[in-house]
Design brief:
about 675 residues
Length: about 675
């Protein structure tokens, strides 16, 4: 429930600070911090928030109250300071999955949380960091690097705030506090559409791109050049060519009518898919809402005369079946429709072969069907996905059914020709209740038109491996980042990017690339010694391994006394390199990616953790994606896994054997290409 202004004031011991929701964190409103993030956040909490009279497992909590000026309700923004040393999760999964495993562990994390509406007037409870219902959950390390972990607007359950309003607020807060980089894993969806694909094609950037978020890291080896090329390929698909390519399909008429409707509506010429999607996303439906059809009348039921008599018993009811091609159009699958249809045909052929060779109408168990189909398809994940969907579906001229054999109590798949269902007696096609493909009325609902093009053109383009690869590349580009670049501002302060190099003896203990330098701000007439002290104090306050850090020298300034003034000696805005000692290399909190030095080398080209599920070879201990190894996300990983390279070295003579000698459970491997240059 929402909090009124009066209720917000009553809950506080003294009159609370109230700020406007849509103006909070605008430049100079209510503060104008000029230092780096770790200093700015302290000013923010002192001036813009009030500490709560409770804590979360010893972590202090502050609350900032924002008033929606138009509707009169108050939104609480909580800030929780998490001490890494006392945290149950001292290492950062988000850093590890976005290529920041080499960053040193920061001492503190600041969580910015707006709970879901119903929790606005309640204290934060257990599991607050893992709650997926927050309207906003952002986390920033005290070094200024952070992550947008959760964002939920109207589609996510809020009755008062839309995603754009929340995102505007978050972006203003990050800018005000002078954060350095913020990442987000873009899983935003609307009506079952991935917005990173939809907006990428329409606007050339994801939904978060309007706030400056760009490609950071791709999954499955996707590089930024692949991503940009994929966006270009999909956005430049010409509408006339799309109509031509869909000419032999049963949805060509619908696609042509959608294109023609929006061409007639547009004042400019629509040539490409990008053009039509962009105008569709900016238009609002002007047509009246379509009437909701009665379920009975919306299904195509061709009934014989006896169906007009008394209501049939459950036993006599018509069997509900649907075409597999229509069924998969509504499935959220990572495989294209043509691969799903091919797998279904292979399964039907296996069932037909069983019936013809053994002259029986008995079914096949799931394992029998799977084994037979694997002779033609090595991707077991694809087979399992299709088998789950094969029940009362029409493939070609056959209906595939799935039922438990009453004698063996085992689930079996059976095959019947259309016209021979149930006990094998002829049954008229008139008694099949076929769920039809709903016709679409262009313009009746813009988003329905968008969904139609999204599913059929972007996800199921006929016979185009290039479009399929491009779509996959965009969907695999989930990790985005926004950077607030370092700049020397027009004021009296001196700003530097300081890189601290360890001593030669300490350098041997560093196994990863050095992280970015620190932003340092000093007064205009600071001395060399004061700069060293500021750098030392900042590093000690920020990183766990630098609590004993001592800066010994500044490169290029040998022989200059600490009492010398910096002004005129070093230009503000430049990078400087310092040497020091005292880094605690034995500290358990060293890298954000954790202490383990594990190696990733997948066939898709990935050489680092990208957040996707992985499995390690039990021989070489190299990690690779389960999906690239033929293990579907719904499957459990095998108890013993040997990668193809090790398998080839162990049993080269039997490399093509499906069980690799029969003693090891090996997942088949398929190559994932990404040739988008």
């Amino acid at each position: 429930m929402s909090i009124s202004i009066l209720e917000a004031c009553k809950k506080r011991k003294r009159r609370p600070k109230l700020f406007g929701f849509h103006t909070f964190a605008d430049p100079g409103c209510p503060i104008n911090p000029t230092s780096h993030f770790s200093d700015n956040i302290r000013v923010f909490l002192r001036e813009c928030a009030e500490v709560e009279d409770y804590n979360f497992h010893g972590m202090p909590i502050w609350c900032t109250l924002l008033v929606n000026e138009n509707r009169g309700f108050v939104v609480p923004v909580y800030t929780v300071e998490e001490s890494v040393k006392d945290s149950a999760k001292p290492f950062c999964d988000q850093c590890r999955c976005t290529g920041w495993s080499n960053h040193f562990v920061s001492k503190r994390r600041y969580h910015f949380i707006i709970p879901i509406d119903e929790e606005w007037n309640k204290p934060l409870g257990d599991g607050v960091f893992d709650d997926q219902t927050h309207l906003l959950h952002g986390m920033i390390h005290c070094n200024g690097f952070g992550h947008l972990i959760g964002l939920n607007g109207i589609e996510g359950g809020s009755r008062y705030l839309c995603g754009r309003e929340i995102m505007d607020l978050w972006d203003r807060i990050c800018t005000l506090l002078r954060t350095r980089r913020i990442t987000v894993e873009d899983s935003s969806r609307k009506r079952c559409m991935d917005l990173r694909l939809l907006h990428g094609v329409a606007y050339g950037h994801p939904w978060f791109g309007r706030w400056g978020y760009k490609f950071c890291l791709g999954s499955f080896g996707v590089k930024e050049i692949n991503y940009k090329r994929a966006i270009e390929i999909l956005g430049s698909l010409e509408l006339d060519q799309i109509i031509h390519d869909f000419g032999c399909t049963d949805i060509c008429t619908e696609i042509r009518s959608i294109f023609q409707y929006y061409r007639d509506l547009s004042e400019t010429q629509l040539i490409t898919l990008k053009d039509v999607l962009r105008i569709m996303l900016t238009l609002k439906s002007r047509a009246p809402a379509p009437k909701v059809l009665n379920t009975a009348s919306s299904s195509l039921k061709l009934s014989s005369r006896r169906s007009l008599q008394s209501r049939p018993s459950l036993k006599d009811k018509a069997t509900k079946v649907r075409k597999f091609s229509s069924f998969i159009a509504n499935m959220d699958s990572r495989w294209p429709a043509r691969r799903l249809e091919y797998a279904a045909e292979v399964i039907v052929n296996a069932l037909k072969e069983k019936r013809e060779t053994e002259c029986t109408h008995e079914g096949m168990t799931r394992q029998e069907v799977r084994d037979a189909a694997r002779m033609h398809i090595g991707d077991t994940g694809l087979l399992d996905y299709v088998l789950k969907s094969m029940n009362n579906v029409i493939v070609g001229n056959h209906v595939v059914r799935r039922a438990v054999n009453p004698a063996t109590r085992i689930l079996e798949y059976t095959l019947r020709e259309i016209g021979k269902l149930g006990n094998g007696n002829p049954v008229s096609d008139m008694e099949l209740e076929i769920i039809p493909k709903l016709s679409i009325v262009p313009g009746a609902d813009v988003y329905s038109d968008v969904v139609y093009l999204y599913r059929n053109v972007l996800l199921n383009y006929p016979d185009s491996e290039l479009v399929e690869l491009a779509t996959r590349a965009v969907l695999d580009s989930k990790h985005l980042v926004k950077e607030w670049p370092f700049s020397d501002e027009d004021d009296q302060l001196l700003r530097f990017v300081c890189h601290v190099m360890p001593s030669s003896s300490e350098r041997e203990n560093f196994t990863r690339e050095f992280p970015p330098g620190e932003f340092i701000v000093v007064p205009p007439y600071a001395t060399v010694g004061e700069l060293k002290e500021t750098v030392e104090r900042t590093l000690k306050d920020t990183y766990c391994i630098m609590e004993q850090m001592i800066v010994t020298e500044i490169e290029g300034m040998d022989g200059i006394a600490d009492e010398e003034v910096l002004f005129g000696m070093i230009e503000s805005g430049s990078e400087i390199w310092m040497r020091g000692t005292g880094m605690c290399m034995e500290n358990e909190f060293k890298y954000e990616g954790g202490a383990e030095n594990w190696k990733v080398n997948c066939e898709c080209g990935a050489v680092d953790d990208d957040g996707e599920r992985m499995i390690a070879c039990d021989i070489c201990e190299v990690w690779q994606h389960t999906a690239c190894s033929g293990i579907d996300d719904s499957e459990t990983v095998p108890p013993l896994f040997v990668c193809p390279k090790c398998c080839a070295m162990l049993i080269p003579a039997r490399l093509e054997s499906s069980d690799c000698g029969g003693s090891m459970e090996l997942a088949p491997v398929y190559q994932v290409g990404m040739e988008l240059y």
